[in-house]
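Entry for the shared binder. Reason: the reviewer on the internal report wants the predicted structure included alongside the sequence.
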Amino acid sequence: MPQDAPPRSMTHRQRMLATIRGEPTDQLPWAPRMDLWYIAQRARGTLPPEFAGLHMVEVAELLGVACHSIGGDMTLPGGRDNSLRGLGIDNHPDYPYRVELRNLPIESTDDGEHLRTRICAPAGELFLHLFRSQGMARDGISLPFVKSYAIRSVDDFEAVAQVFEHLDLIPTPESYRTFQRRIGEQGLAVARGPVAASPMHLILHELVAMDQFFYLYHDERPALHALAKRMEPFFEAALEALATCDAEVIFWGANYDQDLTWPPFFEAEIAPWLKKVSDRLHAAGKFVLTHTDGENKRLLPLYPACGFDVAESFCPAPMTKVTLAEMLEGLRPKTTVWGGVPSVALLDDAMTDTVFARHLDELFASIGPGDHLILGVSDNVPPDANLERLAEIKQRVEAFGPISP
């Protein structure tokens, strides 16, 4: 067998790692994200009997696909702890660290729909109000909506800074190892880091209403930068915990969009942190994955300099302005694209069977040799997906054959 030929048969984990490394594989990795579909079906009471009681690894095994296992299994009962979600932080037993607030009074109430939290900092009180409903669960939504943000005006900056200075980040390497063992060879157990790639990104995405952020960024930029600076030790602690855990691939940062994280903002406030994180984690022998699920067209030229290894949850045309071929061309040969199947392609009312078949013809014709691609659904398999289309994609993957970069 030639030295550069792929093994005759690989596990899902082996296939995904080889793809990231740019090595030959026996076929394209195919790893659709199923948790939104599963949560919605369970809440609706329409979960097919063969899926009842399964966790995400078992769902992937049943479907014959790789398990999309980034961060943790959000379908597990009592998994995600949202008590600090108003700060853009959640805890989960699958994560490689947990976050606790120390030495500040905190009160939380949760009636099943409304989660209200008050934190008393020396500079003032923060009131965080989150909301989730059964209707959201029926749509597969696992994260609550924010009804009251930590920052309402520049007057809240000092209290927010003080709260972040009282956050303890506690490494939990054994929790991650349990997650890693559960995933096994069915996929990559990607260790979860911060959803925001940088302190300023966290402020934009989690701590203040988005429209208000743009005014603050224009009018109060020095004060915002001072706040972000005081949040940096929290991010540094997360980075060190991730660098020392057993994961091969680390999640860091999510939700970029050319309008909301516009190119000059991305270049100034996000890219330096992605590069810093990539350099640190590469030195620790790890790959870096970031969640690029928005409109990427004007951000794509900025991605290579960030140094990350996987652009995950890439959403192509017709849902955005970027085709899969353009994304691959912009990132190969150093960066792997994970995604490429728009979620609407799985909906009968969005694409007829004929249009879907034609879409797959065009997709597989556009990927060249298929290297540096983990095929997935962007961002998630939707609640009303036709699962027969997942099976058809699996057949196309098998028919495409081995990958030799």
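Summary line for the report: The chain has a mean pLDDT of 95.
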